Amino acid sequence: MSVTLGGSDRIKAEGAKSPAASSDSREIANDSLGEDRRRSKRGNVTAAQVAALDARLTGRQRACLADVARLGTATGRHLERLHYEPSEAGRRHARLELSTLTEWRVLQRLTRRVGGVRGGSRGYVYALGVAGQRLAFPGRRRYRAPWTPQPSYLRHALTVSELYVRLREEERAGRLELATYDAEPACWRSFVGPGGARVTLKPDAYAVLYQGDFEDRYFLEVDLGTEDGPRILAKAKTYVAYWRTGHEQEGEGVFPLTCWVASTPERGDFLAEVIERLAEPDRSLFCVTSRDDVINHIAGHAPETTRKEVNP
Q1: Taking the model in full, what pTM does it have?
Q2: What is the pLDDT of residues 110-146, one digit of tens each?
Q3: Which CATH number fits domain 33-148: 3.30.200, 1.10.357, 2.30.30, 1.10.10?
Q4: Calpha distance 240→260 (Å, rounded)
């Protein structure tokens, strides 16, 4: 799902509305894929129920739905920062509305929280519920309740979501305009590799930023320190192979800069050393930054080879 973002202003707190839940509006909580299958019958949502939900969702509820659809997973804290006022009243409205969206099966809380029980409601991790999937992806042939992924996968996905939230916060501060942010799998690129084999390049995210008179494009790789040097080098070479096809340049005019986001300074040094093993023309496709400095890095001046002028 490729989503082009609209305005960056946070929607002001609205009065919480009591959900007039039907007898079918029940929260679905699952511990595993097996549990999902046992509850699949309960997860069914009729077309009439979807139409009724579509008519009653507020603008802010739709924005929460759109962001979870874009990211795959987001915490309650992420959605609070994106769409609610930074006040006790805003936090209270976030709790009430996210609970309502869960009851309506627009969103679903996964069984694993960020920070455990002490994380409170802000630590809940949300994915699209069955009703939310039907609202966000009406053309799909199948819908099913999500299940909780393994901790390492979830930690990585939420780090990608955190990067999106921080970019939106920078947008509200006026430092940039975030035009597009695609997480997996919307950001993937397929191409024909050597020997005619079909290859899929799998960035963690793809971002398009407007900064002044320029448009900057990035492939983002969020590194958690779990990949060894050969796998990182192989991934970098896949980017190089895709660059050499010229497909991205034909469609967009430039090839995105691939930004590796390191979990620690030491890991950043390691990633930089791996990238240095590439030939001189190829290594210019990449940069390495830290998780703390990534926003400053990509909000700065991108190389001329990866940016283009807006409406020249």
Answers
A1: 0.81
A2: 987 675 555 456 789 999 999 999 999 998 888 888 8
A3: 1.10.10
A4: 14
